[in-house]
Amino acid sequence: MSTSAPATVVERFEPEELPAGQISRLLLQLAHDGLSRPIELPVLVARGAKPGPILGLTAALHGNELNGIPVIQRLFERLDPKTLRGTVVGVIVVNVPGYLNHERGYGQWDLNHMFPGNPKGNAAAVYVSRLVDRLIRRLNLLVDLHTASVGRVNSLYVRADMTNPEAARIAYLQRPQIIVHNPPSDMTLRGAAAELGIPAVTIEIGNPQRFHSDYIKRTLTGLRAVLADQRMTRHRTVSLGPAPVLCERSHWIYTDHGGLLEVFPEVTEHVEAGQTIARLTTPFGDLIGEYATRESGVVVGHSVNPVAETGARILHVGVPASEGDPRFYPRDPLPASESGSDEAE
């Protein structure tokens, strides 16, 4: 893609108005700041020469969660709109103010707890309401790209409603380390999409405020697999690799006192009920207490910030589903390839 290609300012995503067989650059206006300057979301759109589904990708809904940005950029570098069936939409930065301020939130608000928003509400509620109205409702599929929050680390994991066959298939195609079943009625972007009948998943791509290269490559490979599975690009063989740990639910363990925190298990490590997973000390080195898991599970993520106040997060534990649990769709073999393979680059 040319670095000098201009972007077109729009107030609404209208895919049928974009040229077929080309990649377009848009600046989607959602709001204005206190100096009357427009807040514009950078968007890439590959409209295929042939009609088909519209796949949406969103990154940086939390302004300091950056790994989704290179995922979208690199995906578009390899897309050929002349052979593409359907449309791929990449919202490179959703939370523009948070991104510019190197912050998670939109001011005092967490955007991913504000959906579907309110057109007559506060600044954040209007922002997400317009995002849904002006872009999200035009999609047929959605993948929302996140990372851990500052002071934490994550595995490569997916949140999805595993009782929904389309969402479950997207989740498995990502080849994550862990999948957490998570019904979408939770005021998130994924939940707002699901309420509109749009199958959606959230991918947690490693750690914040940095580019996590290995997880970026794996996510990119997974998204290419989704495109092929939707027959938007030529079909390829995807090696599914080891099965992810499918969790029926997950929970955090929190401190009940402040001090210096040391967490023992690493991400993806299995822990047993009653296992000691952290200890807390005073600044003088005196032991305040140790923390143990209530039930067995897998470590989805954990804190890496030693300075912990009362109520600080310690460990995110996923509780694996029973093998063959009939509530959840299983990982099915993918169809045979026409030719080629699609491995991480």
From TrEMBL:
Organism listed in the record: Enhygromyxa salina
Entries under Pfam families matching the protein: AstE_AspA_cat
Keyword Hydrolase among record annotations: yes
Family annotation (InterPro entries): AstE_AspA_cat, N-alpha-Ac-DABA-like, N-alpha-Ac-DABA_deacetylase
Keywords: Hydrolase, Metal-binding, Zinc
Essential cofactor(s): Zn(2+)
CDD domains noted in UniProt: M14_ASTE_ASPA-like
Descriptive protein name: Succinylglutamate desuccinylase
